[in-house]
Amino acid sequence: MSGVPLLLVGAGGHARSCIDVIEQDGSFEVAGLVGTPDQIGSSVLGYPVLGTDTDLPVLLQSYVYALVTVGQIKTPMPRIHLFNLLRSYWCALPTVISPLAHVSRHAEVGSGTIVMHGAMVNAGAKVGKNCIINSMALVEHDSTVADHCHIATGVAINSSVQIGEGTFVGSKVSVRQGARIGEHCVIGMGMRVLTDCPSHTQLPPVRNRKAARPSSLMEDEK
Prior knowledge:
UDP N-Acetylglucosamine Acyltransferase, domain 1; six-stranded parallel sheet; Rossmann fold; alpha/beta
C-alpha cells in the first residue's frame, strides 16, 4: 500500500465518491469497507466489503484509521452513531481533503470531515467534525459549519454564516451572508436562504421557479 490503510464505514454511493477523493489524495489507501450484511463479500470500486459495524471491534485491531462514508440527507443520526462508535474504539478519524479542493491555511476543518473535489473553504471559516463538504461547495470567509453537517454539491454559503449541528444543506442552495441556520435543519435543493432558520426547519426543494415564492425564510431574487 502506498498510503496509510484506511477503513471506510459505509459502502453505498457516497462511499464511491469518498474513494475517488482518497485515491486522488494518496495520503491513505482504502483497506476495505464496512457495509450491510448483504454487502459482505462484494466489492466497491475494487475494494472488499469486509464486514458490518458489529465486526468493527475485530477490524479495528488491524486498522488504526477509519472514516464514516455513509451519506446524509434526511437525518444525520446514522453518521453521528457511527462516528461516536468509532471514537469509542479509540479509532483515529482523519480529515480528508481532495487535492482538487482549496482549504485556506487560515481555515479550520475537524476530524472525520471530507472536503470533496472542487470545494472551497475560505479564510477564517470553521468546519466541524464528521462533516461532508461536497463537490463544488463554497464555505466563504468567517462562516461556521458545526459538527455532523452535509453541505451538498454546488452550495454557496456566503460570509459569516452560522450553520448548526447535524444540518443538511441541499445542492445549489445559496445562503445569504450573516444568516444563521439552526441545528438539525434540512434545506432543500435550490433554496435561497435570506433570513435566519430556527433549529429543525424543513424546507422542501425548489422544483420550479414558482415553487420558490418569497416567505419569511426564503425568496426569489428580485
